[in-house]
Write a structure and sequence with these properties.
Blueprint lengths: L4 H23 L31 E6 L3 H13 L6 E8 L4 E3 L10 H8 L11 E4 L4 E4 L2 H10 L18 H16 L1 H6 L4 H21 L13 H20 L13 H9 L10 H11 L32
Parallel strand pairs: 1-2
Antiparallel strand pairs: 1-4, 2-3, 4-5
Helix pairs in contact: 2-4, 2-8, 5-7, 5-8, 8-10
Length: 328
């Protein structure tokens, strides 16, 4: 007897959903309501301390081109002109090794897992990027992006090409920190809360908060060039690395599809403004970002099909944001 199509469909749905939930539990842990729970960074050392004194060519930054958190550190490194002071190694997202692969690394490590275990024997936690590595003591200083970018801004000015550029000015910190908290929860992490939600309720809440904040930010940028006025700050860096991936990846793969960034009158010009800053475009390999997201996050894209994506030439259109440079 032929098996009824209804039975085949229901069985396939059950098997696939069970497998999907299992894979998602490993990729992106969630609570009982289906809300994605980001794991806290474990290494929180500080450059400028007795253990990790500021020095030229002592530290190496490990990044992944796909990762928006690592991208923050790449952008900050460029904006401060630290390319000749803080070395950088690029890890490659590789599903065959279940994490970040390293090629021809000075430490001899073949993956971020091996690097973490070199830095701390027996380490079994998350082996994430970015990671700031101390080449002298062979140890990880810090793997929390929000802290690394502050250290890059403050601790290497003696060797920075743009030492007079302060991306975290004291006078703007209180307002910037409040804005960063909102942007982190609803935008930076918000897109992941949408893409990695395992229940409709969790997704609905995350996507609503995401676009409420994007609407707010678009309005805020109507009378100022950057988030805190006329000065580019770490607040902008933290938002930029999510926005540059939004239309390319998050809109489709993560179901953040109410609007694109290019649909916003002010956010779209703001994104182009930062992208066109000297050296920033080189930190945004759009084809690599698209390829690694759609191929590495298998549970979200089981077919493995890579979409055509956006036309990068659009990001070079005149932004005309300079007219707002003198406001605020």
């Amino acid at each position: 007897m032929a098996i009824p199509p209804k039975f085949l469909i229901q069985t396939a749905q059950f098997v696939w959903k069970t497998m999907w939930q299992t894979m998602m539990s490993q990729l992106a842990p969630s609570d009982r309501q289906g809300n994605f729970q980001r794991v806290e960074s474990e290494f929180r050392g500080t450059i400028g301390s007795e253990t990790f004194p500021a020095a030229k060519n002592r530290y190496r930054l490990y990044v992944g081109l796909t990762c928006p958190w690592a991208h923050r550190t790449m952008v900050t490194r460029v904006l401060k002109g630290l390319e000749d002071c803080v070395e950088m190694s690029v890890a490659i997202a590789d599903v065959s090794v279940g994490g970040w692969r390293l090629e021809n690394d000075p430490t001899g490590c073949g993956s971020m897992k091996e690097l973490y275990q070199l830095g701390q024997s027996g380490y079994s936690g998350r082996c994430s990027v970015p990671a700031l590595w101390d080449c002298e003591t062979q140890s990880i200083v810090n793997n929390e992006s929000s802290e690394i970018i502050v250290m890059l801004n403050e601790q290497f000015n003696e060797w920075a090409k743009y030492s007079d550029r302060d991306l975290y000015p004291e006078s703007l910190r209180e307002e910037g920190d409040r804005l960063n908290d909102l942007i982190y929860r609803t935008v930076n992490n918000g897109v992941y809360r949408c893409g990695f939600a395992t229940s409709q309720v969790a997704y609905d809440q995350a996507v609503t908060e995401l676009f409420e904040t994007l609407d707010f930010l678009d309005k805020r940028l109507g009378d100022r060039r950057y988030l805190l006025g006329k000065t580019l700050t770490l607040c902008d860096v933290r938002l930029f690395t999510t926005l540059i991936r939004f239309d390319l990846v998050y809109h489709g793969l993560f179901k953040c599809d109410r609007h694109r960034i290019r649909d916003y009158a002010n956010l779209w010009g703001y994104l182009r403004d930062i992208y066109q800053q000297p050296g920033i475009k080189a930190t945004c390999p759009l084809d690599t970002i698209k390829q690694e997201y759609y191929s590495s996050l298998f549970p979200l894209n089981p077919s493995g099909i890579i979409p055509l994506g956006i036309d990068s030439a659009d990001l070079m259109q005149p932004h005309q944001r300079q007219d707002l440079a003198t406001t605020l």
